[in-house]
Amino acid sequence: MRKKKLAKAPFQLRKQDKKLERAKVNKLKAQKKVSYVQSHLDSPITRFQQQLKSAIPAAHIHMERTQKSNGKFHYKATVQLKHENTVSLQKKAGLLHHVEHRAHTLITGDKPSLQKSLRTWQPKSKALYPVKWAANASYFVARQTGKTMWKSALAAETIAITGSKTVLRQGVQKLKGKYIQEAQDDAHKTVIAAGSLFLTGSRGLIRHMAQKRSFRLEKANDKLAKAESKIKKVEAKQKLTPLKAKHRAQKRAWKMSKKSYQNLWQIRSFHLTDKSRQTPIRKAAVLSRKQIYKSNHRLYKTQKKAILLEKKTARKKKRIQRNIKRQTKPTLLILKPGIYDLKSAGRKAWTKAANADANNDMMQVVDALKRGAEKAKSVRKTKLQRNQKKKANWKKRAIRNSKSSSGRNTS
Predict the structure, then answer these.
(1) For residue 78, what are the CA distances in angstroms to 61, 63, 84, 117, 398?
(2) Which residues contact 1 (CB under 8 A, 6 or more apart)?
(3) Per-residue pLDDT for 8 more than 60?
(4) How many CB atoms lie within 10 A of CB 232?
């Protein structure tokens, strides 16, 4: 005899609730960790500049425009010290750009201008109205001309600064190449090697520290993705358990109804069915129950698919974030000089062998294939870039879905 399935014990449901609470607590901790890492993502020098910028107050002139009882306007200037949104501490490129920046940040509030005075001027006689209109028109033309000249001067200054930087950089590169070519004794070669080693080491150290900070952020994001995946998994189980039980009960009721219709009267020895009791009314009732069961079954499949899709999406996000975390993990700093020396030695040896054996066609073909593969590899996106693009697409899709759902709710 077939045993009936027992309902889940209450302690199992409580166990799922405890799992969900634990996962929510882990998600809250991971969110705090992500926010903390994001706030400390900048380099120490950048953070020091930001702290210095917020610590040093800057003076601003705040203008207020009030109207007197006789209808005339009066300006009142007050000096204010602000710690936030102050003038940038970075040096502006060019004198005109510095003046432009100071003009927009030094004076705040209702700034005095000739345009406001002309607009608020009320002539005492009708003969002076044409004078007002002519003054407004001439001021508009002069203002537009001045704006155009000022923007042209700013553009010219930008072009001059960029050109001078380019010429200076090219001159430094030429002098550097000339010095390297003329260096014959060991002292000059030692200086060149030390300078190259210092530049390479400093750039590699800066890149390593930046990669380390990004790895900390991706590690915190990985914990957050794990917690979200766990929450979706427990929630899906909690949603599917009553849904499956309800569908099972509906299916059982439909089977019993169908069986009772087919076997209203049955002889066990011959398994015969009484056709006389299968009236059209009972047949129509069974067909209506069948339609109801089919609609309920389709609804169950749709709900189940949506729940499982949320769970699958969270699992995919977790896998992508785990791959990003693995790919951003930096190697040990102590091993990087050796790895760099080995790679550079291999490149130099291959270049020397290819140049020495210039008449060997096979060597030249392999060298051309190698250069083509390196060029294609530099153009092709890495696994980290592809995973980061997937993550960005997931975020865009989530934002778009949230906007569409909010729009449907408001409508």
Answers:
(1) 6, 7, 18, 21, 48
(2) none
(3) no
(4) 20
